[in-house]
């Protein structure tokens, strides 16, 4: 390391010179000035040292995600969100191909079929009991039938 003091950058430069230093166009320099990032001295004139410091700080903030380029960050966030959506889509597609996922409509149809079967079996219990337990009276089987129907109705209301 040298014991020399760093040379001070000073002076006033045009928007064209500042654009060349920042590797951008003059319109970008004007936009940066409007946002207070570069320091304007007069019409088309900028204070070079403070403008460079501010621009470097601005770029650091943008790179660190602390603000600055709202449109740029919005675009970055959108790209990240889109990439995540694509990854999720691929994961779902792969899981479906492996048979780990099935369409909700198929699940719904299957459960409807199972529940319909269970309902029919439950409603058949009173007549089955009449055949296997002949000592039950008609009143007994009617009470059993009513209890089963009430239970099924209560269960269907629980949806």
Structural class: mainly alpha
Mean pLDDT: 86
The overall strand count is: 3
Number of domains: 3
Apparent shape: rod-shaped
Q: What is the helix content?
A: 55-70%
What is the strand arrangement across the widest sheet? 1-3-2
Instruction: Characterize the largest beta sheet: strand count, sense, and whether it forms a barrel.
Output: 3 strands, antiparallel
Q: Indicate the CATH architecture of the largest domain.
A: Orthogonal Bundle
Uncertain residue ranges: none
For the record, what CATH class of the largest domain applies?
Mainly Alpha
- Topology as a string of helices (H) and strands (E): EHHEEHHHH
Look up the CATH topology of the largest domain: Arc Repressor Mutant, subunit A
**Count of helical segments?**
6
Strand percentage? 5-15%
End-to-end C-alpha gap: 77 Å
What's the Cα radius of gyration?
38 Å
């Amino acid at each position: 390391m040298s014991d020399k003091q760093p040379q001070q950058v000073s002076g006033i430069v045009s928007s064209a010179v500042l654009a060349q230093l920042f590797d951008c166009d003059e319109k970008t320099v004007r936009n940066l000035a409007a946002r207070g990032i570069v320091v304007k001295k007069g019409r088309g004139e900028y204070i070079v040292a403070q403008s460079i410091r501010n621009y470097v700080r601005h770029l650091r903030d943008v790179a660190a995600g602390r603000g600055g380029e709202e449109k740029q960050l919005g675009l970055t966030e959108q790209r990240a969100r889109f990439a995540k959506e694509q990854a999720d889509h691929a994961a779902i597609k792969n899981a479906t191909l492996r048979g780990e996922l099935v369409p909700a409509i198929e699940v719904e149809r299957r459960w409807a079929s199972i529940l319909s079967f269970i309902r029919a079996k439950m409603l058949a219990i009173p007549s089955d009991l009449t055949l296997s337990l002949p000592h039950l009276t008609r009143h007994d089987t009617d009470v059993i039938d009513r209890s089963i129907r009430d239970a099924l109705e209560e269960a269907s209301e629980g949806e």
